[in-house]
Write a sequence for this structure.
């Protein structure tokens, strides 16, 4: 008996010395969750203010949040992992691919050979291919999205609308989160007294979107995360401000739970001093970790298929979509 206890203790000491978690407490609390971190801007489009470089600070923050989430079991994607600029069209195309890939896997895992499942897989592959073309050549395909050129009277492209329909699946609501990381500046003339963190989310009541698309599925979920996150950011010392609707590109051109976070005002001395402090960014990254764990904590839906939801209407639409894609690609070549 004593020998068994000693062997057990030795194993624990051995595992601890290699930093292997002995008791799997919350190591998998985010297992199956997918978080997309979008570090705003890049070297060509960054905002500088008194030694502060927004793209560098937000990239550093993304690189601090990512390992924390991964240590808790999440899958984390970065739309930008270096200072190099990435066009907004490529960022949203990546987000669309990552979510379509997840939906495809759920279909495959539940596949039982029905034609309708095969049809759905073919359709998802086709949409992933379109997004892949946009990443390869984002400028040539910018007209696929809303505001390049800005054309408020035009409805959403039918292929993008189909992606939005697929993304309305509860699998996405329960397992995905898109976070765009920024810091704020006041309009010129700059008011250095204005400070604090704000969060923006898409809205179905936005007047500029009424002719484009006003059936986003995850608005409430996005607002829920906004409120949780601002509370945690407030605890780090940057004051909680507002949660507001907006139609920014990176939260508009996909139908995922999504927020754009202004992590304080870099035009305010106190906020900027924090955002330029590496130790503060560590604390801010933990604020994100805690907010994301809270956000997903009430969700018990695994990343499995809601087959009827996903297959609904796909077979009737597929012929139409193949035609429209062919037409679209010819137009844009
Ligand atoms: Zn920004």
């Amino acid at each position: 008996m004593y020998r068994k206890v000693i062997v057990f203790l030795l194993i624990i000491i051995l595992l601890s010395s290699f930093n292997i978690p002995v008791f799997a407490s919350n190591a998998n609390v985010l297992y199956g969750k997918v978080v997309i971190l979008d570090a705003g801007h890049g070297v060509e489009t960054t905002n500088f203010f008194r030694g502060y470089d927004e793209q560098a600070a937000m990239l550093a923050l993304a690189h601090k949040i990512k390992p924390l989430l991964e240590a808790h079991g999440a899958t984390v994607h970065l739309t930008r992992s270096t200072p190099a600029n990435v066009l907004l069209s490529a960022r949203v195309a990546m987000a669309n691919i990552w979510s379509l890939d997840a939906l495809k896997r759920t279909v495959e895992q539940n596949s039982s050979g029905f034609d309708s499942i095969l049809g759905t897989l073919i359709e998802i592959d086709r949409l992933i291919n379109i997004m892949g073309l946009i990443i390869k050549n984002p400028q040539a395909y910018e007209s696929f999205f809303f505001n390049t050129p800005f054309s408020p009277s035009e409805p959403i492209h039918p292929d993008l609308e189909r992606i939005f329909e697929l993304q309305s699946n509860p699998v996405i609501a329960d397992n995905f989160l898109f976070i765009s990381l920024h810091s704020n500046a006041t309009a010129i003339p700059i008011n250095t007294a204005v400070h604090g963190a704000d969060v923006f989310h898409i809205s179905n009541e936005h007047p500029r979107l009424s002719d484009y698309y006003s059936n986003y599925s995850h608005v409430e979920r996005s607002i829920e995360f906004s409120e949780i996150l601002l509370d945690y950011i407030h605890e780090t010392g940057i004051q909680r401000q507002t949660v507001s609707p907006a139609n920014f590109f990176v939260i508009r051109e996909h139908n995922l739970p999504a927020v754009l976070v202004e992590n304080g005002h870099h035009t305010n001395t106190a906020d900027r001093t924090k955002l330029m402090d590496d130790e503060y960014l560590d604390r801010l990254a933990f604020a994100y970790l805690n907010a994301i764990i809270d956000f997903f904590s009430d969700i018990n839906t695994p990343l499995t298929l809601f087959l009827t939801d996903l297959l609904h209407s796909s077979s009737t639409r597929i012929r139409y979509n193949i035609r429209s894609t062919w037409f679209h690609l010819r137009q844009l070549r």
In short: Residues 15-24, 301-309, 311-333 have pLDDT under 50 and may be disordered. Residues 142 and 148 are 6 Å apart (CA to CA). The chain is about 50% helix and 15% strand.
